[in-house]
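>> received
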Amino acid sequence: MKKLILTVVALMGATSLFAQSELVVNFQQGLANAKAGNYTEAIAQFQAVIDASFDVETEDPNDLKAIAGSKKFIVTCYNKMGIAAVNAKDYENAIANFTEAANYAELYEDIANMNKNRTYIGQVYEVQGGDAFNSGDYATAISVFSKGYEADPRNTSMALHLAESYFRSDMYTDGMSICSAIMALNPDKYAEAQSEAQAKIDMYTNNQVAKLQMANDYDGIIAMAEQLDDAAIAQKITMQAYYGKKDYNKMIELSEAALAAQTTDEGRSDIYYLLGVAYNEKGQFEQAIAAMKSVTAGNNVENAAAVIKALTPAQ
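>> returned
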């Protein structure tokens, strides 16, 4: 009989050795629910594991795996719920779930999943804002696209639509700010978007300057330039404004900084042309010719050549 009792005791000890902790049980139940598509229940179980981990000191490898796994799969569950909501065109819940997924991923330092879910948020807002944009409701488009842009500023398709919405709403500075941000991205990856952004910058800047010139509001042009993030354009239109004011000394004064701000041959040539015009107006013809000779690209090459010819004494 004594031998039998010892055997029973030994068996009981072995059973307790392999008993699963509450952390592991909840985690496994969460996995089962997630696999079955019961994401709400799975999230509750994963959250229970995470909450309990703050009160339990454990070095058990199975417990640690359950805690790490719960942090990972709670993000996955919210993501899956977001995708399901998108498929049902329930965009409000899609955004809410992707936001939860991104927030949990950030909390648990899962940067890849944080960025992925923020991308999804941006895409949902892009779809929502597109309806308003296409119908000409730019105020609503701005409201929606702005939220998506905040979530994912690298969604350049949406950013370009946001910029266009600002421009069409006569919010030039805001549109320029978005375009400037696009221009600051990696050109190897975003070259096409940057080409579109530059086209918008050029067109809407010309439109805005022309509108202010028609009103003889050159101080308005200077004030507008001061609000721009793009130093190259700001310096150029400032020099143009001082030309309108016939302040040639100020143009010459600003030319060095304006040239330094340019990033292209076309931009530098435009500044040299304006500088040459200023010197010509002041009767400083040698300096005017020197400046015009530096006009090597862009739309003013032929004009510069004509000025040089006109100012060069006949031999």
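>> The CA atoms of residues 84 and 90 lie 9 Å apart.
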